[in-house]
Amino acid sequence: MGPNTNPRKRKAVTREAPPPASDSGEELADGLLDGILSHSEDSSDEDQDDNDDEGDYDSEASSVIEGLSDEDEEGDDESGFESEDEEQDIREQLRKLKTSDSSSHHHDTNMDFENGGEEGLEEQDDSLKPNYTVTTDANGNPRYLYKEIDPVYDSDDSAADVSNTIGNIDLSYYDEYPHIGYDINGKKIMRPAKGEALDALLDSIDIPKGWTGLTDPTTGKPLNLSAEELDVLKRLTRNEVLEDGYDPYPEMVHYFSGVKEIMPLSAAPEPKRRFVPSKHEAKRVMKIVKAIREGRIQPYKPLEEREEEDEQIHYDVWADEKPRPEKNMHIAAPKLPPPGYEASYHPPPEYLPDKEEEAAWLEQDEEDRERDFLPRNHEALRKVPGYENFVKERFERSLDLYLAPRVRRNKLNIDPESLLPKLPNPEDLKPFPTTCAAIFRGQEGRVRSVTFDPLGIYVASGGDDGYVRIWELLTGRQVWNVKLSDEEAVDSVKWRPDKDTSILAAAAGESVYMIIPFTILSPDIEQASRDILDAGWGYAASKPSTNTNGETKEPPGKWARPGTRIEAKGVLVQVTVRSTVKTINWHRKGDYFATVSPRGQSTAVAIHTLSKHLTQLPFRRLKGIAQTAQFHPSKAIFFVATKNSIRSYDLAKQELVKILQPGAKWISSIDVHPGGDNLLVGTYDKRLLWHDLDLSTKPYKTLRFHTAAIRAVRYHQGGLPLFADASDDGSMQIFHGKVVGDMMENATIVPLKVLKGHKVKSRLGVMDVDWHPREPWCVSAGADGTSRLWC
Amino acid sequence: MAAQTEVKVPIRLSTRDQSIRLEQDAGVLLVQTTLKRPQLSALVNNLLRPDAQPIPFDILINGQFLRTTIDEFLTQNGISSETTLDVEYARAFVPPLNVSSFEHDDWVSAVDVWSQDVQSGQERILSASYDGLLRVWNTSGDVLATSTAPNNGGRITSLKTARWISDKKIAAAGLDNTVRVYKYDDESRTLTTTLELYNHRWGVEDIAVSASSSRLLSASSDTTISLFSTNPKDNPAAPTTLLPTSTTASNKRQKLSKPDRTVPSRGALATLAAHTAPVSSTIFKPSDPTVAYSTSHDHTLKTWDLTTASCVDTRTTGHALLSLTALPQLNLLATGTSARHITLIDPRASATQISAMTLRGHKNAVVSLDSDPSSEFHLLSGSHDGTAMVWDVRSVRSGAAGVDAEGRVGECVYSIERESIKGGSKTHAHGEGTKVFGVRWDKSVGIVSAGEDKRVQINRGIEL
């Protein structure tokens, strides 16, 4: 024990005991230990040091001191106040001891320390003086008279009694033992650590905080780290944020959540941009689209990458796997009736068979028995014998399972093909047009209308160039033409249905022209045609239409000669109505024809009488825009199609017969079946509708096969069950549409052929279609400036 | 290997051509199956006339031309080499190569060749055009004579058909409903109209001429056939309603158009009216000028007795018939249909089937037909798809099972494209710009065809 170790020891003590700094802080408030605390720390330390040293070196006093110090350590666990008081008491006792025992011989080995201690003690005595007074008792011995104890809060000194529990026994007796005595409970009091063990403990503990073992090069003092610096280092090693007070995991605050709040943070309505497609996004998408179109963005992966992928070898483990039938074939067992009373082991006596019944049961063949057991009575369940048929039944069941063929039965075994309607094979429905047999080329601009002559030798066409042209059918040779108008397109051409004459009606602008193409006619046919046209001249003049006031009304149609230029070509009559004529349709007898000019409000539909050169307006008012009008093929019925409905009128009775509602947005054309009971409607909304006039006002069939508007529909008028439509997608579709006279059977409609060939020009494809009067041939008018014959 | 090459098949040679028939039947011959057509042809030549110049023969086995070795043929058709093959040999068809083309101003609608009783090189080719003019050509492509446009009162003059009646007379007709007889003078090289025959109210599609009986048949779109005599005096007076001068309007036009130059006009001896649709073609029966056949758009082929002017027999087919020619030795009539095929019809009353055979291969309406003057089995057809095709009726392939009536289907032997578009763009079925309107097969001139390309094209098989 060199003096060099002393500082450590002292420190250890200060650590064990409550730190003096804190003491002083608390005492300051108390004010009781003012005097002590006025001392420097060093002196107090010296004082304690003194005690320890005494414990170490003085054999007699040390035992007491040891015990005291022991107590002291135990008392540490308790409150600081108590330990403070204890300390005071111990010191007092120590003083007594010293004054009593060693007051006579003042010389000690460590005098220097004693002196220091003496000084301290004296000072302490001064402070403790008021506690007692020394008097002489009757025997002459000094007598200590203690002052009355003021029973304040911490005046209790009872703890002083618990000082030494080992009694007044010399510790040397325990030298060989690890303990130094026994406590009141008989347990060993272990020897306090000392010497080397204590050193080791201190070695392990006593490196002060912030000790680095380095010297500060600037000051030469040991380089110690401050608590802040240590904290920074600690954070560094933990990879934490150096800044103080930063919380890497703050608790999440759900400002916006799925929960609908009663009082939301913001009750503003949803902004409009949530519902409006983003212009910005559209712009960006269009940018990408443009880039793809220009080829700046390659929409497909470059080929190389694919090759790389191909290089990887993939093993198809299931390549030669054959489909196996599903194993999961659960067949539910048949449900058995629940057992009755007779099946009980102890049935009521009425269920028990009597002898006759038993004999009869035994007599019966096994298969004929009503029950497969005989009710028997047993007194108790434990008396029921084993089931004698167990093995036999199990065997039979196994045999059944083994032998019975189990087939999975599909609940619904219907061939999906059989659900499709049975349509005849198109091959069986020949003949119908399949290929383009001739192209009539030579027109400029769109061809708007085509028509066959009644004999089926020639085809007439009219188009945007204002010409009406006549073509030889099979060869496609243009045999005649006339220019009707410089500005107006020829919107419609229709041959008059009469085989003995040849009159062509053509509409250009507001005029309808009657044409006799005499160069291809024989003189007698020409003469017959001229006679028909000329018959009406002067009729209108001889019978001017007058109203009740006697004023001459302007007739709805003006019949005149068209002028010598085209009269020389064979255009003989010009009928001018009030607005542009789009459609011409002849009555079957050829005396009447109807024109439709959709722009004319009340004059939209006009019926003209050829023999009287008379124009009549049958409808004062028409609901909707008139699209087309047609005569019934056999009765005096007139069909007028407006934008989305078709009305049929009885011309004889002058009344409305029927209103058909095809459900179309915009009707483009209609055609009446030669039988008169069916009507075909083509619409600009791509649909082809078949109306059965006997059935309903709604369409019987709706066919939607085109990708663009349907411009024209046409029945074959010569007895073949065919009809065709012409669409803006550049194709025509040929259908088989057989109408049976039997009222019980509906019409069969079979799509036969799509005829493609016309080019789509400015979104117009095929403008018109017409059928040959006898053969399954049709001719089409294309927006590409050609007409085509399909055979 | 050796055994395979030694496989032999028994054959029996035969022919339908009398001139090359074997004098004595060779009986059953055993030939190697590796033989091809040239070897078999040489074999036939050896048997027939070993010393003379060999004739190339085509070999037909079971109605099919042998184009491969016999072995492959047997394998293809599943015939055992044990069975005796009936091998038919025929003079090989020499592919007709393009010789020359005669260019016109307008579409050429019909063509005819006069080669009877003239020495080689003096054949005359007649062409009728849509511009209304007849032209007579020599074989080297020079126009010898051109007719003048007729004065028909401003009406259309396009010609549809033209025929030689004799080396001095030509008949032609067209869309102006009139059949005209022209006189051709080879010396002065002039064509003058000598007769106008009026009986039709619509365009004339076809005329037929019988030189022996000097009769003329014209088929018209007005559904009638008219019988005329080529001799003007024999015909009655023309019906007044059909003359251009009959109506005031046309008379006025006619007078305005041209000074009148009188051409005698006559009417018809008889009008044959039984068809219900335009008559497309008519011919005389080759052996009997009192019998005529006609085809019409009403799907029928009618047989006419001209002496009584009545319809004797009607054969109805499934399609509009557009052309007609006779195969006299086979007693067959060939008609071209709008359904793109040629139907061979036996017109005799004893025939039970309507269609004896169907020749398929054209892609558009078959509008002109002629038979090979040197072989009774070959047939020439012109179609709106822009090709002329040569057919051999011996080449028969059994058609689809169960279709007995049209079970026998023939295939084209050779197809003649239009020279004007050779090497150009591919042809379309609608044959725009290349439609063939008329074909004629002459023994000395070869195959003459006229069409929409404004040319008369001559193809001839060059004999080696």
UniProtKB/TrEMBL annotation, chain A:
The superkingdom of the source organism is Eukaryota
The family database entries (PROSITE patterns) matched by this protein are listed as: WD_REPEATS_1, WD_REPEATS_2, WD_REPEATS_REGION
Q: Which residues form the BOP1 N-terminal domain?
A: 174-433
User: Which Gene Ontology biological process is one annotated for this entry?
Assistant: maturation of 5.8S rRNA from tricistronic rRNA transcript (SSU-rRNA, 5.8S rRNA, LSU-rRNA)
Return the GO cellular component terms, semicolon-separated.
nucleoplasm; PeBoW complex; preribosome, large subunit precursor
Provide ranges: composition bias, Basic and acidic residues.
90-110
Q: Carries keyword Transcription?
A: no
The record, for SMART domains, names: BOP1NT, WD40
Which UniProt keyword terms apply here? Nucleus, Repeat, Ribosome biogenesis, rRNA processing, WD repeat
Q: Where are the WD repeats?
A: 440-481, 766-791
Q: Where is there biased composition of kind Acidic residues? A: 43-59, 68-89, 115-125
Q: What terms describe the molecular function in GO for this protein?
A: ribonucleoprotein complex binding
Q: Where in the cell is it found?
A: Nucleus, Nucleolus; Nucleus, Nucleoplasm
The record ties this protein, via InterPro entries, to: BOP1/Erb1, BOP1_N_dom, WD40/YVTN_repeat-like_dom_sf, WD40_repeat_CS, WD40_repeat_dom_sf, WD40_rpt
Which portions of the sequence form the region Disordered? Answer: 1-139
Compositionally biased intervals (Polar residues): 130-139
HAMAP family in the record: BOP1
What does the UniProt function comment say about this protein? Answer: Component of the NOP7 complex, which is required for maturation of the 25S and 5.8S ribosomal RNAs and formation of the 60S ribosome.
Assembly and partners? Component of the NOP7 complex, composed of ERB1, NOP7 and YTM1. Within the NOP7 complex ERB1 appears to interact directly with NOP7 and YTM1. The NOP7 complex also associates with the 66S pre-ribosome.
The record's comment on protein family reads: Belongs to the WD repeat BOP1/ERB1 family.
Task: Report what the protein is called.
Answer: Ribosome biogenesis protein ERB1
Lineage, highest ranks first? Eukaryota, Fungi, Dikarya, Ascomycota, Pezizomycotina
In the UniProt record, the gene name given for this protein reads ERB1
UniProtKB/TrEMBL annotation, chain B:
InterPro entries, from UniProt?
NLE (IPR012972), WD40/YVTN_repeat-like_dom_sf (IPR015943), WD40_PAC1 (IPR020472), WD40_repeat_CS (IPR019775), WD40_repeat_dom_sf (IPR036322), WD40_rpt (IPR001680), WDR12/Ytm1 (IPR028599)
Q: Which residues form the NLE domain?
A: 9-74
What is the annotated localization of this protein?
A: Nucleus, Nucleolus; Nucleus, Nucleoplasm
Keywords tagged on the record: Nucleus, Repeat, Ribosome biogenesis, rRNA processing, WD repeat
Q: Which GO terms describe its molecular function?
A: ribonucleoprotein complex binding
Q: Which GO terms describe its cellular component?
A: nucleoplasm; PeBoW complex; preribosome, large subunit precursor
For bias type Low complexity, the affected ranges are: 236-250
Q: Name one GO biological process term.
A: maturation of 5.8S rRNA from tricistronic rRNA transcript (SSU-rRNA, 5.8S rRNA, LSU-rRNA)
Q: Would the keyword Amino-acid biosynthesis turn up in this protein's UniProt record?
A: no
Chief localization class? nucleus
Q: What function is annotated for this protein?
A: Component of the NOP7 complex, which is required for maturation of the 25S and 5.8S ribosomal RNAs and formation of the 60S ribosome.
The similarity annotation says: Belongs to the WD repeat WDR12/YTM1 family.
What binding partners and quaternary form does the record give? Component of the NOP7 complex, composed of ERB1, NOP7 and YTM1. Within the NOP7 complex ERB1 appears to interact directly with NOP7 and YTM1. The NOP7 complex also associates with the 66S pre-ribosome.
Name under which the protein is recorded: Ribosome biogenesis protein YTM1
- Recorded source organism is Periconia digitata
Gene name as annotated: YTM1
